[in-house]
Amino acid sequence: MRSFRKFIDISTHINGTKVKNNLPYVSSGIPSLDHIVGGGIPAGSIFVVEEDVLGVYSKVLFKYFIAEGVACDHELFVTSLDEDPHKITSELPQPCALPPEDEKAPSTDAEKMKIAWRYEGLSQVESSFGSNTNLGHNFDLSRYIDADTIEKSKIQYGTTTWQDSTLSWQTTMRRGKLKSALFHKLLRNIYETVLRSSGTNMLRLAIHSLGSPIWMAMDSDDTEFQNYGRDLIMFMYYLRILIRDKNVAVFITIPSHLYEDPIIMKKVLYSAHNAVRIESFAGSEKETNPVYKDYHGLFHITKLTALYTLVPFVPPSLDLAFKLKRKKFVIEKLHIPPELEETSEREQDDITATPSTACGGFRKKDIDF
Amino acid sequence: MSDIITSCLQLQKNISTNRIVVKEINGCDGSFIVNCVISYCIKQNSPLLIVSSHNSITHYHNVGLRMNHNLFKSCEAGVIDYFDFGDATLTNIMEYAESDQLLIDVLKKIEEMQRNHDTVNIIFDGITHLLDLQYTLQEVNKFGSEIIEIAAKSKNPLVIFHCNDVMEDDANHCWANLLSHKAQTVVEVENLSSGLSSDVSGHLTIKYPGNKFNEEHIHTVDMKPKKYLYKLFDRGVKWLAPGTV
């Protein structure tokens, strides 16, 4: 009798999914993101985005995920305490048939690179990812999905409100029990939603800014500091247990930069399957660094887990940067521009680094490459 | 692959209660060790209880299909049994039931299997989640000791604790060390400090604290651990000596 049996699941017929390792994958809405995390977000997994400091770009990714769910007619559960989730869903990028065209400034003669003749015949280096993907839709950030389409889509909104943040579910610390009513209510919402979901369609859970100060209000009032973050860690664990082996994909954004204690985020990420971190240049010294002039920030891959397989995905590059264009969000391989300027500076002086002191003096070690 | 694992983890040695601790350091995933041991037990037709709290049984089954064994079929045959600890805890929460009984349920499951089999091997996957669920260090340490004590009642069993060592200042680290002191073999898996690589999946360090009372090591103050690099493939693991990539 054969010990190996090919497993065919009804999930192969779910719209907007691609099966890999016996597991349906859904698109995040951004082809380049799908490419660098291994082809998409697997069902039964939690995808965490560690937010940038202002939360601007993480919200864009959040909207892409929901928009992709609307475009694929998936069931959706959206919740946020920091912002009205209805407002978020009213600003979802509209799907378009073709990829939005890149905006290119007309090049002048002065900007044309001079290239040695032997290299003229070679193809250009491909910095972008996901141009050939067959999963997911293309979206135009400059246009929104109309309200009627949102109304007709299968979006359910979480019932947690900021008023729940100071309510206690358990008055004493009991084993396995969530103390905060906020986390307990959300977990119950999700539990009932997962139970109600048909199983023949994908369910996308989107939680915006989990672990923001509103979520942690109860822990902040607690006199025992070692309890800070316990509900968040426990919630993430229960969520992992709840959605595993189901046609559910979870997308969570977390403001990890607010946590001084690195242990909390490590434990939170232990329960997540895949995680990325967005480092925006806004407000930092990198914003004026000419090395990064073509990008809006760096994109770090924090965790990639092997689900239903031994081998985790290894991305094509770990040096990633992103840019938010008018119509789309793109993740690319980070390219440092060539050093073409001729100056009278000595070779050991770093001409492209931003001076850290008012009296000048460039240091080579300031460049992070 | 199976010969290397069998010899490095001393699976075929007749050790009374062979206790193995798998420590995940720096966010590395050590579940491949669990998969290899499951594969060994199925091929040896040796009864096994999997207490899962981190990865699901379906995950182990799908990985096992690529490693040429069928976990669900072994479960139907009665060779493998499992206890979904995470699911049981979640159900208790949603049904407003008490969770105090769960640890006792695990021990009862072991005893139930021991009634039907001479040897019962045990794997507890993701045991450090007990600390996330607010069990105290004293309770989980006592639980670990009780598992070893009950397992010892069967003939030369394997007991494997798969734990996540977060950071040095944390209770997880303390408990991982407590378990390591009780272990015959400690396997530490660690990510490369430089990041992900397609050539090597991570570092593997194997220590044998259980050998310190053997005659050949009795005068050795510090036994040198064995260090390897490992590379994960679809169908198995390849272990490499450092510098031989």
Please supply descriptive tags for the structure shown above.
heterodimer, A: 369 residues, alpha/beta, Rossmann fold, nine-stranded mixed beta sheet, three-stranded antiparallel beta sheet, 8 helices, disordered N terminus, B: 245 residues, 9 helices, 9 strands
Q: Overview of this structure, please?
A:
Chain A has 369 residues and is of the alpha/beta class. Chain A has one domain: P-loop containing nucleotide triphosphate hydrolases (Rossmann fold, 3-Layer(aba) Sandwich). Helix content of chain A is 21%, strand content 20%. Chain A is built from eight helices and 14 strands. Chain A has helices at residues 31-36, 56-71, 85-89, 147-152, 181-196, 217-221, 230-243, 262-271; strands at 17-20, 23-26, 41-42, 45-50, 75-80, 93-96, 138-144, 155-157, 203-208, 248-254, 274-280, 297-304, 320-324, 329-333. In chain A, the strands form three sheets. Chain A has a nine-stranded mixed beta sheet with strand order 8-5-9-10-4-11-12-13-14, with helices on both faces. A three-stranded antiparallel beta sheet of chain A has the order 1-2-3, with no helix packed on it. In chain A, helix 5 (181-196) packs parallel to helix 7 and helix 7 (230-243) packs parallel to helix 8. The longest helix of chain A is centred in the first third of the chain and has 16 residues, at 56-71. Chain A is globular, with a radius of gyration of 23 Å. Chain B is an alpha/beta fold and 245 residues long. Chain B has one domain: Rossmann fold (3-Layer(aba) Sandwich). Chain B is built from nine helices and nine strands. The relative contact order of chain B is 0.18. The chains are: A alpha/beta (369), B alpha/beta (245). Chains A and B meet through helix 5, helix 7, helix 8 and strand 12 of A and helix 3 and helix 5 of B. Chain A: Belongs to the ELP4 family. Chain A: It is found in: Cytoplasm; Nucleus.
